[in-house]
Write a structure and sequence with these properties.
Blueprint lengths: L3 H13 L44 E7 L5 E3 L4 E10 L4 E10 L9 E3 L2 E3 L5 E10 L1 H4 L6 E11 L5 E14 L1 E8 L8 E12 L4 E3 L5 E8 L6 E7 L5 E7 L4 E7 L9 E2 L3 E3 L3
Parallel strand pairs: 2-9
Antiparallel strand pairs: 1-3, 3-7, 4-5, 4-8, 6-7, 8-9, 10-11, 11-12, 11-15, 13-14, 13-16, 16-17, 16-18
Length: 281
Amino acid sequence: MRTRASIVAVTGALAVAGLVAPTAVAVDGPGRDSAPRFAEKFDTSGKSGATARSAKAAAPVISSVVVNGGKPIVVGVSNKPVRATFKVTSPTGIGFSDAELWHGTTYTETTPFIPTDGIKNCTGTTATCTADFEIMPFLDLTNARAGKWNLAVGVIDGEFLEETAQVKAGSLTILRESRLTTNATPEPVKKNKILTVTGALRIANWSNQTFGGYGNHTVHLEYMKKGAKKYTRVKTLKTDKAGNVKTTIKATADGYWRYVYPGVSPVIAPKTSVADFVDVR
């Protein structure tokens, strides 16, 4: 059995005496090595929690976990906030709660992680708790870490006797941001003359914190005639090694041209460029 109060007291005493060294977290790439880990606060061995200390005691129940409204989040090279919510039911109240985003298939001490900035509204016997995070690309992300992240949630009851820890309580897909442009020339253009449509695809490179050009990515050229309500796919092209694309087409009527990038699921976000209107005379 796990006595919460005893663990906290003993650990605190040893830390004051200088007998407990901080846990070293070695990860492949950047990381928040100095932040306290979820595993240092909760039992993540997969067990359901400590045994009840009395007939009235019961482990907290975690449910209704939602991260970022259930949607993927697109991240470039700037910090991005994200919020998770979860419901807790605990007969003796809530003594402590925490959450952590982590990347990988198995939770270990070397798993890349993002700690919460704090838990809010997590009091009483029934609560809908809020956990806020700040994704910092230069610390948290590499290109290999795009895709699914897991959310760990832990709660200790009001008497500090029972805990519930779920290392895969929820999940979040983190996508690399993509940027795309379209430029059709000349403008205006004579009817039935050749129109050149260029574009540039740039994708967030978390490994060096820049937006870079990538070759061999598929983009679609779309056109919508003036007065119409729907775009039509005209061509499918591949970017060159610099991430650029270029094609020619006959101009027949006034209209809007744009490139569309479908992205790469589940790691790179799709993107539709701003349309370029061409006046055909």
